[in-house]
Amino acid sequence: MRAGNLRQRFLQAVTRTDFTWRYVIHCRSALDHRLRAPAPRGAAARVLTTLRRDGIAVLPAAELFGPSGLAAPLIAAAEELETAWAPRLGELREAYRSGAATGKQKRYSIPLLPDGAPAPGGIFTAFALQPPLVEVANAYFGMYTVLTHCNVWHNFMASGQPAQSQLWHRDPEDRHILKVFFYLSDVGEGAGPFTYARGTHRTPSKVAPHSRVDGGTPRSTDEELARLAPRACWLAACGPRGTLVLADTRGYHKGGWGASAERIVYVCEFLASGAKGIDTRENPLRRAAGV
């Protein structure tokens, strides 16, 4: 084997370790956080403990943000979005049910906001940048993170068998990925709740058997995932409107297959500043720590 290949394999092995990922690849951000950031307290500390242990934390938003949080303004803004989208949603719902919807995009999940970086000043960005949530994100990563995007998803009722992200999978962006879901409608078992295999965020090298690959991401059925993660560790994050779900989506998860109800959910994502070529210089707002 050539020396160049040996060196490449060595570097790949080294960068897979959590220590190297944090204190070599993201050294500056990690050291800045270690020296400057206060430790989360109260509800934020409890969420962080649960998130580190299970890979997921589920709680009422008011428990983390208190009575002065932005849940009510976000719900009001989402209701305005739903009203504006109502005619188009009706068309897309009918196309999905009839099988006329085609293409690579998720036809069962409609994003109501434009793709791309969060817009400055709006409620959808402001909700994600509330201090308790940013503190949890930064402490979980052990570094200052970036807010990469936020959106509102409207999920239609299931038509056919689970597909794409309705099947078990891991997100591929980086070593840790923190997604935050805020339920804008009541989400019971029939509405396709976000479902997580607790503890699988700690075993990124273990891959579940899978019967298909969509967009380069392996997808597993319930039966296939059960061979890696017993059903006893699965958590279906059901809850009323106002429920907050934080999850490291490098762990196995699925959601959105609603057998009897539609689902409306706000989602945002935090990543390390260098993940997938993210450049904080392009948009300072994306630096969640504000530094």
What is the CATH homologous superfamily assignment of the largest domain? q2cbj1_9rhob like domain
Return the CATH architecture of the largest domain: Sandwich
Q: Ends: how far apart?
A: 45 Å
Summarize model confidence as the mean pLDDT.
88
Total domain count: 2
Order of helices and strands: HHHHEHHEHHEEEEEHEEEE
Structural class: alpha+beta
CA gyration radius, whole angstroms: 19 Å
Write a concise synopsis of the structure shown:
With 291 residues, the protein is α+β, with helices and mostly antiparallel strands. 34% of the residues lie in helices and 19% in strands. The model has no long low-confidence stretch (mean pLDDT 88).
Describe how the helices and strands are arranged.
Elements: H1 3-15, H2 18-25, H3 27-36, H4 42-54, E1 56-60, H5 61-65, H6 71-98, E2 109-111, H7 123-128, H8 131-141, E3 145-155, E4 178-183, E5 195-197, E6 212-214, E7 217-219, H9 222-225, E8 234-236, E9 243-248, E10 253-254, E11 263-272
Antiparallel strand pairs: 1-9, 2-3, 3-11, 4-9, 4-11, 5-8, 5-10, 6-7
Characterization of this structure:
The chain is α+β, with helices and mostly antiparallel strands and 291 residues long. It has 2 domains: 1-36, no CATH class; 42-286, Sandwich (Jelly Rolls), CATH 2.60.120. Helices cover 34% and strands 19% of the residues. The chain has 9 helices and 11 strands. It has helices spanning 3-15, 18-25, 27-36, 42-54, 61-65, 71-98, 123-128, 131-141, 222-225; strands spanning 56-60, 109-111, 145-155, 178-183, 195-197, 212-214, 217-219, 234-236, 243-248, 253-254, 263-272. A 6-stranded antiparallel β-sheet has the order 1-9-4-11-3-2. A 3-stranded antiparallel β-sheet has the order 8-5-10, with no helix packed on it. It has a two-stranded antiparallel sheet with strand order 6-7. Helix 2 (18-25) crosses helix 3 (27-36) and helix 4 runs parallel beside helix 8 (131-141). It is globular. The model has no long low-confidence stretch (mean pLDDT 88).
